[in-house]
Amino acid sequence: MNIVIIFDHPYGASASDNVPNHRSYSAALLAAVMRGLTTKGHKIDLIDLYTDGFNPVMSAEDLASWRQKKTNDPLISDYQQRLIAANHIVFLFPIWWESMPALTKGFLDKVFVKGIIYKESKPGRPFISLLPNIKGVTLLTVMSTPDFIYRWIFGNPITKILFRGTFRKMGIRRNLRWYNYTGMEDRSLETRMLYLEKTEQRFARL
């Protein structure tokens, strides 16, 4: 399968090593995901938003293009074509203030253009996906908030935004999976490594 990974962390994908002041558990998870996918021979298409210099701000010109069902940014056009070719999409980012970082939100705002990524059937009705090859979407998140608080008190805001409010709204309802890694900064190195091994094995089975 053609797996498109959207990765969002300021340190970029290269921060997977345990180097003080420049290490990211999100990047370590990304490396584990890619090792697992490589084992099965999947094609990996990595979108590293910070490394790409992606601008998440929707300008007046961007919005005017969006309303005309087009884009004026070559990077966004490239992202759109890569999503259209994808069989599976993986999002990987830390949770900040109980939601996604700015670059991922901007990715949804600017890349998911009506008429290119989805279309409307009738006003007020669910959208129709224009991603013809998609078989599933996987979300991996890293957060400090305890899992039970995020799920039962805050009500899983990230899945409401990304799954219910985006992909299910577009008609993609099957194979939407979320794996959450909470409190990793307080866990032992052995425990963190164990989670990475489990992640690699999980994606080797994709």
From TrEMBL:
<protein>
    <submittedName>
        <fullName>NAD(P)H dehydrogenase</fullName>
    </submittedName>
</protein>
<dbReference type="InterPro" id="IPR003680">
    <property type="entry name" value="Flavodoxin_fold"/>
</dbReference>
<dbReference type="InterPro" id="IPR029039">
    <property type="entry name" value="Flavoprotein-like_sf"/>
</dbReference>
<feature type="domain" description="Flavodoxin-like fold">
    <location>
        <begin position="1"/>
        <end position="174"/>
    </location>
</feature>
<comment type="similarity">
    <text>Belongs to the NAD(P)H dehydrogenase (quinone) family.</text>
</comment>
<dbReference type="Pfam" id="PF02525">
    <property type="entry name" value="Flavodoxin_2"/>
</dbReference>
<dbReference type="InterPro" id="IPR051545">
    <property type="entry name" value="NAD(P)H_dehydrogenase_qn"/>
</dbReference>
<dbReference type="GO" id="GO:0005829">
    <property type="term" value="C:cytosol"/>
</dbReference>
<keyword id="KW-0560">Oxidoreductase</keyword>
<dbReference type="GO" id="GO:0003955">
    <property type="term" value="F:NAD(P)H dehydrogenase (quinone) activity"/>
</dbReference>
